[in-house]
Each structure stands twice: as C-alpha cells, then as structure tokens.
Write a structure and sequence with these properties.
Elements lengths: L4 E5 L2 H12 L5 E6 L2 E5 L3 E7 L14 E4 L3 H13 L3 E9 L6 E7 L5 E6 L4
Parallel strand pairs: 1-4, 5-8
Antiparallel strand pairs: 2-3, 3-4, 6-7, 7-8
InterPro entries: Glyas_Bleomycin-R_OHBP_Dase, Glyas_Fos-R_dOase_dom, VOC_core
Organism: Bradyrhizobium denitrificans
Protein name: VOC family protein
Length: about 120
C-alpha cells in the first residue's frame, strides 16, 4: 500500500547519524545520499529524511508517528537501545502492548527533531 515515507529534519548530518544507528538493528541502512535528503532501506529506499533547516521541533501532541516492522522482540529491543544511544528519547520502552486481535510488541522513540518512531513485531510465543 505505501511505497515509501519521509520525515523532515532540521540537521541532516545529526539525523543521518541517528537513523543509521537506530535502524541498523532492523536491517535498514543508508542507501542513497543527496545534498538535502538521505534514503534508508533494505533493497531500495523506503524511508527518507529531508533537510528542513528552519523546521521547528515536532510538537508532542501531533499524534503522528511512523512504524518499522521488526522480525523479533530482540530487534525491537535493539532498535530502542540504539536509538537512545544515538541521542533519541524513549517515548515507550520495549514491551507487549494491549491489542484486540494480536500480540503486539513495540518500542517508541523520539528522534532529535521530535518525530515519533516505533518498531514493532508480533510474537507468537
């Protein structure tokens, strides 16, 4: 349904370092680098960060976030730890979340600009 998604960032170098570290446990890497945008993915760029130099910090009450699929709870844990080490802020530690139909294990972080990023997996055990 969705081919790719992007978020704005105020400092491209800082955000590139953040996302390289945070996304590595999920198997995503920097694939394309242009003067004002960086594309991350596995086989092609599915996630982009775009430089917006005058961008204000994303307000916490926007309600928007993006979510990356993890293969395991260990990958979710790794994403959260790497994101915090890279300068992100926890917005929900790794753990099971209540859900109507499935077992949902996720972690949430805020990137350096306040974008809310999630990693999720659906454990069967």
């Amino acid at each position: 349904m969705i081919d790719h998604i992007s978020v704005g960032v105020s400092d491209l170098a800082r955000s590139t370092r953040f996302y390289e570290q945070a996304l590595a446990p999920l198997g995503l890497a920097r694939l394309i680098e242009r003067p004002t945008t960086i594309g991350f993915g596995k086989a092609y760029p599915e996630f982009w960060i775009n430089l917006r130099p005058g961008m204000a910090r994303v307000p916490a009450d926007t309600g928007s976030h993006l979510c990356f699929r993890a293969k395991s709870t260990a990958e979710v844990d790794g994403f959260h730890a790497a994101a915090l080490q890279a300068g992100g802020v926890s917005d929900g530690p790794p753990g099971l979340r209540p859900h109507d139909r499935v077992r949902y294990y996720a972690a949430f972080v805020l990137d350096p600009d306040g974008n809310r990023i999630e990693a999720v997996t659906f454990p069967t055990e």
